[in-house]
């Protein structure tokens, strides 16, 4: 029992670390919806992604030859990573263009809100599948106990659901930070595509520069906050 709990804790940590990418994607995608629909999109998108992830778990358990070549020297896993990496690149670049050109602020709200909602939720589910495929394969490699893997997925889902709203609101209110997050997604998309080409990219080469860039941006935000506060004090003197 102690080994099972230790393995469960390890898998939860793995899901949460890899879930950072999901939080960024969800936060940025739902920003395109009217404010009244954002919370609903987060919940529905994550719930459907959770169901898709559990279904994919059983599919991957059945397809033990997922890494065997099916097209030239590419396996099913490679094809998913290649397609997902390209889609993430396209989505991140498109969102950066919309943000820089003020498309979100100047464009009228779509009259077909239901179609926009369905589009956002569909993209959330597809990207979650891309992000989760490696974590599920890793989890299957660590254990064949289905309840442990499903428990880890469920617990990490609840944690992400609790934090995705505040993080999304924080990004929406700070365009510079949003652009930085989108730049991270470009890096992640390139990495996923490269891994689909059978080239391993150490995660430390990705997350350390991203963490440093985030730290610098937070310092810049702190500087701007203090500068505005000092100007306000001087204006009152």
Number of beta strands: 2
Q: Report helical residue fraction.
A: over 70%
What sort of overall outline do the alpha carbons produce when their principal axes are compared?
globular
Strand order of the biggest β-sheet:
1-2
Computed CA radius of gyration, to the nearest angstrom: 20 Å
Mean pLDDT: 76
Describe this entry's structure for a reader.
- This protein is mostly helical and 237 residues long.
- It has 2 domains: 2-201, no CATH class; 203-237.
- The chain contains 8 helices and 2 strands.
- It has helices at residues 2-30, 35-62, 76-100, 103-106, 113-142, 146-172, 175-196, 204-236, and strands at 69-71, 74-75.
- Helix 3 packs antiparallel against helix 7 (175-196).
What is this structure's SSE topology?
Elements: H1 2-30, H2 35-62, E1 69-71, E2 74-75, H3 76-100, H4 103-106, H5 113-142, H6 146-172, H7 175-196, H8 204-236
Antiparallel strand pairs: 1-2
Helix pairs in contact: 1-5, 1-6, 1-7, 2-5, 2-6, 3-5, 3-7, 7-8
What are the defining features of this structure?
237 residues; 2 domains; mainly alpha; 8 helices; two-stranded antiparallel sheet; 2 strands
Summarize the structure.
The protein is mainly α and 237 residues long.
């Amino acid at each position: 029992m102690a080994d099972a709990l230790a393995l469960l804790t390890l898998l939860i940590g793995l899901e949460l670390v890899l879930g950072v990418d999901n939080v960024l994607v969800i936060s940025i995608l739902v920003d395109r919806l009217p404010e009244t629909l954002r919370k609903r999109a987060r919940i529905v998108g994550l719930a459907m992604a959770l169901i898709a992830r559990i279904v994919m778990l059983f599919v991957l358990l059945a397809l033990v030859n997922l890494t065997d070549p099916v097209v030239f020297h590419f396996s099913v896993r490679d094809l998913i990573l290649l397609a997902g990496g390209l889609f993430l690149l396209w989505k991140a670049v498109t969102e950066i263009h919309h943000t820089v050109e003020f498309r979100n602020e100047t464009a009228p709200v779509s009259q077909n809100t239901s179609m926009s909602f369905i589009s956002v939720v569909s993209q959330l589910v597809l990207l979650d599948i891309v992000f989760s495929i490696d974590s599920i394969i890793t989890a299957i490699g660590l254990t064949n106990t289905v309840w442990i893997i499903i428990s880890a997925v469920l617990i990490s889902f609840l944690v992400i659901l609790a934090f995705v709203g505040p993080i999304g609101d924080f990004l929406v209110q700070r365009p510079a930070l949003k652009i930085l997050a989108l730049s991270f997604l470009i890096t992640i998309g390139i990495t996923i595509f490269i891994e689909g080409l059978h080239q391993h990219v150490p995660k430390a080469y990705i997350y350390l520069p991203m963490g440093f860039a985030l730290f610098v941006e937070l310092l810049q935000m702190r500087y701007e906050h203090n500068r505005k506060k000092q100007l306000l004090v001087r204006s009152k003197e």
